Amino acid sequence: MPIRNIAVGRFEEATHPGTLKQGLAEFISTLVFVFAGSGSGIAFNQLTSNGATTPAGLVAAAIAHAFGLFVAVSIAANISGGHVNPAVTFGLFVGGNITLFRGLVYIIAQLLGSIVACFLLEFATAGWVAPAFSVGADVGVLNALVLEIVMTFGLVYTVYATAVDPKKGSLGTIAPIAIGFIVGANILAGGPFSGASMNPAVAFGPAVVGWSWANHWIYWAGPLVGGGIAGVLYEFIFISHTHEQLPTTEYN
């Protein structure tokens, strides 16, 4: 059964220097990603008098997030794997590719990275606050939730196919590009409807700094459900027993 591959790990893992170093890498990469992605939205708002919801603004956001995520994944890949997203970390956890305690360190680091990035943006732009994610006009909450589930499923499935699958071969070299591209494409598809978060950390930072929590639960529930489904599906159907589970006795 799939549940046998899920590893809790040991509490000592959360304070191990190796785990903390990986957490720092996730903090920095998430900060870089959110600063670039949310910063592009602020810049476009400033240049167009709050016109970020125009077609040009949507394209600009897609490109900025695609490029930013490509870099963020690349700079952390050799240290932490370059998750940059609690939904990715959760998807890898349910597939048995990361322990619970290490995953919690990653998620906390990602959330802190997003918060710090948004505070830095507010300071650097003399008071412009990163816009919080929100459900589009005439879009139901359930519609937005399903959209976030589907888009995050595609993202985490891409992570598994290009970065996690032991049979990926040379495909792994383009994993950051593929991951960035799927996020950019999803923003073009879902941006006007749910904001196309696909990442609880990306939504959490602006919500904290701007203290805007309307329908915020969607940006946790949708990505975690979508990421979890992708992790279970790919790991236990396409990788199956060929996968070598992460060691859990390193901290004995």
UniProtKB/TrEMBL annotation:
Its main location: membrane. The keyword Membrane applies. GO terms for cellular component: plant-type vacuole membrane. It is found in: Vacuole membrane. Coiled coil: none annotated. One of its GO terms (molecular function) is water channel activity. It is a multi-pass membrane protein. It comes from the Eukaryota. The chain crosses the membrane at residues 27-44, 56-77, 83-101, 108-129, 141-162, 174-197, 217-237. Signal peptide: none annotated. It holds the Pfam family MIP. Keywords: Membrane, Repeat, Transmembrane, Transmembrane helix, Transport, Vacuole. PROSITE patterns: MIP. The keyword Transmembrane helix applies. Belongs to the MIP/aquaporin (TC 1.A.8) family. TIP (TC 1.A.8.10) subfamily. This is Major intrinsic protein.
